[in-house]
Design goal:
Layout: H1 7-15, H2 23-34, E1 40-41, E2 52-54, E3 59-64, H3 84-107, E4 111-116, H4 117-120, H5 125-138, E5 143-146, H6 158-165
Parallel strand pairs: 3-4, 4-5
Antiparallel strand pairs: 1-2, 2-3
Helix pairs in contact: 5-6
Length: 166
């Protein structure tokens, strides 16, 4: 399949994609803030520069784009048909870098949560996403992942989860 836009237009579109303050990241930040959590952003002193850091709980949250971080079995993570060798190599390097950062964080006592872009695009995502985040925060799991595939189908009591973390 060929690209539907010119190479110059595609280049301009790709250069406009931000690594920070993306829509999915802003949504997760708004949800956490509305639940009463205070956090730090993009801490460069931590491996992988997590998007959101809750120092009080030693939790690092990465909000990953499904395409850029090769979310397996996700509709948003298709390798482009043109220049596929380049993209496979680039996306594999992103995955390897993510894994290394996650391992370093775990080794230094941090808990790591990955919120995938597809989880922020689900219909009714706001309540379900916050429920899923709070449920993971209340668990003892060192590593967590929230995607459209593992979102809870019915919202849990948000006040219960938020209070139990304090």
């Amino acid at each position: 399949m060929t690209d539907i836009v010119s190479p110059a237009t595609r280049s301009r579109m790709m250069s406009g994609i931000n690594a920070k303050n993306s829509r999915p990241e802003m949504l997760v930040r708004r949800l956490l803030h509305s639940a009463g959590f205070r956090f730090r952003l993009h801490r460069k002193d931590l491996p992988g520069t997590p998007d959101i850091v809750l120092p009080k709980f030693k939790i690092a949250i990465f909000v990953n784009g499904c395409f850029w971080h090769s979310h397996s079995e996700c509709n948003y993570a298709k390798v482009p048909a043109t220049h596929s060798e380049f993209w496979v190599k680039k996306l594999a390097a992103n995955v390897a870098r993510d894994k290394a950062a996650e391992e370093k964080l775990i080794a230094t006592g941090w808990r790591v949560l990955c919120v995938w872009e597809c989880a922020t695009r689900c219909s009714g995502a706001i309540d379900d996403l916050l429920s899923a985040i709070l449920k993971w925060m209340n668990s003892n799991e060192r590593i967590g992942e929230i995607s459209a595939m593992n979102m809870p189908k019915t919202p849990l009591t948000l006040a219960h989860h938020a209070q139990s973390l304090r």
